[in-house]
Amino acid sequence: MRPLLGWAVKLGLVGLVLFAGFAVYLDAIVQEKFSGKRWTVPAKVYARPLELFVGQKLAKDDLLKEMDALGYRRESVANGPGAVAVSGNNVSLHSRGFQFYESAEQAQQVNVRFSGDYVASLTKADGKDLAVARLEPMLIGGLYPAHQEDRVLIKLDQVPAYLVETLVAVEDRDFFEHFGVSPKGIARAVWINASAGQLRQGGSTLTQQLVKNFYLTNERSLTRKITEAMMAVLLELHYDKREILEAYLNEVFLGQDGQRAVHGFGLASQYFFSQPLSELKLDQVALLVGMVKGPTFYNPRRNPERALSRRNMILDLLAEQGVVSPEEAAAAKARPLGVTQRGSMANGSFPAFLDLVKRQLRQDYRDEDLTEEGLRIFTSFDPILQLKAEEALAETFKRQAGRKGSDEVEAGMVVTNPETGEIQALIGSRQPRFAGFNRALDAVRPIGSLIKPAIYLTALERPSQYTLTTRVQDEPFSVKGQDGQVWKPQNYDRKAHGSIYLYQGLAHSYNLSTAKLGLELGVPNVLKTLERLGVSRQWPAYPSMLLGAGALTPMEVTGMYQTIASGGFNTPLRGIRSVLTAEGEPLKRYPYQIQQRFDAGAIYLLQNAMQRTMREGTGRSVYSQLPSSLNLAGKTGTSNDSRDSWFAGFSQDLLTVVWMGRDDNGPTPFTGATGALQAWTGFMRRADPLPLDMPVPDNVVVAWVDAATGQGSAQNCPGAVQMPYIRGSEPAPGAGCGIQAPVDSVMDWVKGWLE
Questions:
Q1: In the predicted model, is pLDDT for residue 739 greater than 60?
Q2: In percent, how much of the chain has pLDDT > 90?
Q3: pLDDT, tens only, 100-141
Q4: Which of 28, 52, 130, 589 is deepest in the core (most CB within 10 A)?
Q5: β-strand pairing of 43-46 with 376-379
Q6: In percent, how much of the chain has pLDDT > 70?
Q7: Which of 111, 74, 70 is nearest to 90 (CA)?
Q8: Rounded to whole angstroms, how far apart are CA atoms 449 and 459?
Q9: pLDDT given for residue 20 in this prediction
């Protein structure tokens, strides 16, 4: 007996040593992860903040759309952060406050009065005038690590009333009393499961759930359960209940958004309600807590009835336990689920723009920095303009449905601010909310007639040789290349138009006169102009380049037209404004860069010709949908066999480039005017831009000329029109008219009568 007892003692000591060693090992694991950086947090990408000021061009409906997207609650009185009240032309809102790059914006009540599509007044709650109010920017996406986890980290003092009480009441009633495991909870679970004859309740504490999610797998085994219990006890030995609870609130899995795993109540609140966690009401809290048991099973978007039943059961439980009154529970049960629609602007995915942001960030940061450090990226993205661009494109495709081959047509679209070069909206496909091939950045396509402004700009930089009213010949010709190939361009209408003014060649997009002009100037010189406009691709100096045989992406075309729209100043296109650390510390700014590349006078003349394109040329159809008072400049583009439909055009405050074509380079049923121009017009109609109003440069004079001859004319002569010229290149003033002709006629009559 004694030998057996001795062996038992020895084995017990060995077991104790092994258990102690295992406990020390588990303790090291627990402390290492819990005390260090607990989560890799993806970079968050924000849209531009909406700034409100008196005189701002902003429709009330657009403001409300953005506020809906930000998750503001429509209430009778805006009496707390995240609330908005509407009365006629007055909008009262209570902003949430936000940490921007340069400063923190405090939460405040703002009253906005509209007059038409303008902000007429802006006042504080006390009625005093407010110079400017800045709303928090919309979160438009993140840059996720390989494991695709996402979360919005929260502090315990940021959680709404009832969340902790509800979570504890439902998941772990003894949380504040037990030491990591709950014998009472285990006994209660055993009793309930035995009574029901099936597994209905688990005995795991919140601490054990955290340990399982944080350190272990979902394996169902006794070994894993023992390990879980030991680690839970060790966790409670080292850390207080508040720390454990805060970690749980940030770690718990609450849903799946495509490849992105939604972790923590902070992100779940944004994902399901488009609201910060601190603003959630009792019924919303109950829904999220109810989802802990089965995020997929109780997903309110997929299984609304099941989710509603679970939410109401939890509200009844809270009433039973005295957490809330029966009246509060009943009022909460009467409310709808209130989950935002997936795919709305609030939960929208903007993959094309996020792709652009990633590419620009990778020039300065490592991938690990972008996916693990919780950086906050502030961009120029305008969600309202993006929505309008998407609507315009969808409308165009809908209108063109039924045309042969239209279903295969894809699209790319870029919207920028001409003054700053900031990208405000970006579409990479005809289904803009789905990630894939980003045609705005990567579709390299022949640009057709979009090259023509570069040819005319090259000419207009030589005022001693060329003006807008210089006569050019639109006649057939041919050129024999070094390889013996004969190049013989043709107009789109297969006709020659004879002697025309220089500007008419651009306005009507005539190939013959344009190509002849380009050859006179020299193809290499035109290519140098392209380079100065911002095109970095190297093209061979073939005559065919003059009619757009060279290929660019929509983004590259935008960079080219940006220089034209900004008055000859090259402004590199950018989507990022600034970067903050996770703690809100400024990290990097992306300042506005500008370089003058062209004489303002030559650009002014080119813009004038491009405005005539819209008034009398290939872009004139826009004014069937837009007011004639709206000054616009633009250019259509069509490649060979109508494989590519382009339009690039701008107002004072918006530059938009649209491409439509097929990925397999097959022919489309559209020209530039019947395809891309339609989408561009639809967007501009929705965006309601400011008319183009470029100041007349010092070296430009406006002269009266005869519309038929281009010769100088007096203002009151029939057919007299005003044309701009570089000073010194204008035609000599014409002789007066209106008096000479009648006098001559009278004298002839008198002579005849005397004879």
A1: no
A2: 46
A3: 877 788 888 999 999 999 999 999 888 899 999 999 898 888
A4: 52
A5: parallel
A6: 86
A7: 111
A8: 16
A9: 57
DSSP 732: P
The torsion angles phi and psi of 124, rounded to 5 degrees, stand at -80, 180
Question: Is 171 noted as a catalytic residue in this protein?
Answer: yes
Q: From residue 520, how far is each of 335, 481, 498, 543 by CA, in Å?
A: 75, 15, 17, 11
**Identity of the amino acid at 716:** N
CA 284 to CA 269: how far, in whole Å?
8
Q: Cα–Cα distance between 669 and 18 in angstroms, integer?
A: 78
Strand 73-74 and strand 83-87: the pairing is: parallel
Cα–Cα distances (Å) from 723 to 632, 709, 714, in that order, read: 17, 13, 13
Task: Give the tens place of pLDDT for each residue, 403-416.
Answer: 777 788 999 999 99
Please state, in angstroms and rounded to a whole number, the distance separating the CA atoms of residues 575 and 361.
10
Q: pTM above 0.85?
A: no
pLDDT at 362: 84
CA 136 – CA 580 distance, rounded (Å): 15
Task: Report the C-alpha gap between 290 and 63 in whole angstroms.
Answer: 34
Helix (H, G, I), strand (E, B) or coil at 119: strand
Cα(26)–Cα(33) distance, integer angstroms: 11
Phi, psi of 444 (to 5 degrees): -90, 110
What kind and span of H or E run contains 725?
strand 720-726
Q: Out of 204, 380, 429, 449, pick the active-site residue.
A: 449
Q: Which domains does the chain have, with CATH numbers?
A: 50-141 (3.30.2060.10), 145-345 (1.10.3810.10), 391-687 (3.40.710.10), 700-740 (no CATH)
What CA–CA distance (Å, rounded) separates 740 from 318? Answer: 99
Catalytically annotated residue among 171, 372, 461, 730? 171
